[in-house]
């Protein structure tokens, strides 16, 4: 269970690497807790000017670890919700490098990033309703704002799979590139941000997010309430159990 999340600070860029490739970087409770701790430390560390979150050129994040999710489904607060609140209220620029699977939280976390680079092999999916659940991470607000209600309905309710190129076309990603170019491009973006005056970049980012900040935090709370209700329904329990039968 060690080293599931790696972090490294160089040239004012904190690189966070999801490192559970045998499970396609599916996030479990321990990983969410580690991510929260790393982001909170980065928030207070004046040496951190930007954050790069990545997997590798083949895999970003397959969403929640379903076995862990079922085990903790009745917890008063899911660790995933703590991570969502942490990344939503983080005040420094975040760059994401996305290849291969980006499922559930692997996609919704991108809505809180400032630069998103996808690879042509990226496969993004938001399968909430198929699991008997609802959107999280304020995606019910942020995705319609980004792509419009009709497209957001396709992605959030129908759960349509979409590619790295489509993510760029929809405005979810800044650009799409070849997998072998992904990490270098994302690192260059993070370094470019980190080289700028930190106060100016963080102030500019805060001003840009100011109009939606309260709405985002309210959406996170509303989604968490409905998510916690839905996960306890028989419909959701049966769907989740079917994955292990």
UniProtKB/TrEMBL annotation:
<keyword id="KW-0413">Isomerase</keyword>
<dbReference type="InterPro" id="IPR029045">
    <property type="entry name" value="ClpP/crotonase-like_dom_sf"/>
</dbReference>
<dbReference type="InterPro" id="IPR051053">
    <property type="entry name" value="ECH/Chromodomain_protein"/>
</dbReference>
<protein>
    <submittedName>
        <fullName>Enoyl-CoA hydratase</fullName>
    </submittedName>
</protein>
<dbReference type="InterPro" id="IPR001753">
    <property type="entry name" value="Enoyl-CoA_hydra/iso"/>
</dbReference>
<keyword id="KW-0576">Peroxisome</keyword>
<dbReference type="Pfam" id="PF00378">
    <property type="entry name" value="ECH_1"/>
</dbReference>
């Amino acid at each position: 269970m060690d080293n599931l999340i790696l972090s490294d600070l160089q040239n004012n860029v904190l690189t966070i690497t999801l490192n559970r490739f045998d499970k396609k970087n599916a996030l479990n409770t321990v990983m969410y807790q580690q991510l929260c701790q790393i982001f909170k430390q980065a928030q207070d560390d004046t040496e951190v000017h930007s954050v790069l979150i990545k997997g590798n050129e083949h895999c970003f994040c397959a969403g929640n670890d379903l076995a862990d999710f079922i085990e903790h489904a009745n917890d008063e607060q899911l660790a995933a919700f703590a991570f969502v609140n942490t990344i939503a209220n983080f005040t420094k620029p975040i760059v994401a490098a996305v290849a291969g699977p980006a499922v559930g939280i692997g996609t919704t976390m991108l809505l809180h990033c400032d630069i998103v680079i996808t690879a042509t092999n990226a496969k993004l999916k938001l399968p909430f309703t198929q699991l008997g659940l609802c959107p999280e991470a304020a995606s019910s607000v942020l995705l319609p704002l980004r792509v419009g209600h009709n497209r957001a309905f396709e992605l959030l309710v129908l759960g349509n799979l979409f590619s790295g190129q489509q993510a760029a076309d929809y405005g979810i990603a800044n650009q799409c590139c070849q997998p072998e170019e992904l990490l270098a491009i994302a690192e260059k973006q993070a370094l470019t941000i980190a080289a700028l005056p930190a106060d100016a970049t963080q102030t500019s980012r805060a001003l840009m997010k100011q109009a939606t900040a309260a709405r985002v935090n309210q959406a996170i709370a509303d989604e968490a309430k409905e998510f916690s209700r839905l996960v306890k329904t028989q419909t959701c329990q049966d769907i989740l159990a079917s994955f292990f039968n």
